[in-house]
From TrEMBL:
Protein's name according to its UniProt entry: Arsenate reductase
InterPro entries: Arsenate_reductase, Arsenate_reductase-like, Thioredoxin-like_sf
One matching Pfam family: ArsC
PANTHER family: ARSENATE REDUCTASE
Family the UniProt entry places it in: Belongs to the ArsC family.
The entry's keywords: Oxidoreductase
Keyword Electron transport: no
């Protein structure tokens, strides 16, 4: 199990605390420092069953500068969104846990973290 975190994020810290409390074995990826490549983002999106716009933090300054709210949300624009996430990793929603069974969850709630633990 791997968790993508921003240590400054309270949701990330909460998820780590719960993983520790449950004795989970996991690795931490500080995705702002160890930026995922476009292919990694595609893989995680597949594991999540989501599209790139579903995991984009649209209120971030970079999102506003890029004008993301006006970008199309369709198959033709998918690669453009993924490229933006790779170029601006702060736009990636957090934390994301990739579970050992090949799935993943956006672990912003205790229930989501527990869901990842159960997989």
């Amino acid at each position: 199990m791997e968790i993508w975190i921003n240590p400054a994020c309270s949701k990330c810290r909460s998820a780590i605390s719960l993983l520790d409390a449950e004795g989970a074995q996991y690795t931490v990826r500080r995705y702002l420092e160890d930026v995922p490549a476009e292919d990694e983002i595609r893989e995680v999106l597949g594991r999540l069953g989501l599209e790139p716009w579903d995991i984009t933090r649209t209120q971030e300054a970079a999102a506003k500068e890029l004008g993301l709210k006006d970008w199309p949300r369709d198959a033709g624009a998918r690669d453009r969104w993924i490229a933006a996430l790779a170029a601006h990793p702060k736009l990636i929603q957090r934390p994301i846990i990739t579970a050992d069974d090949g799935t993943a969850v956006v672990a912003r709630t205790e229930d989501a973290v527990r869901d990842a633990l159960s997989r």
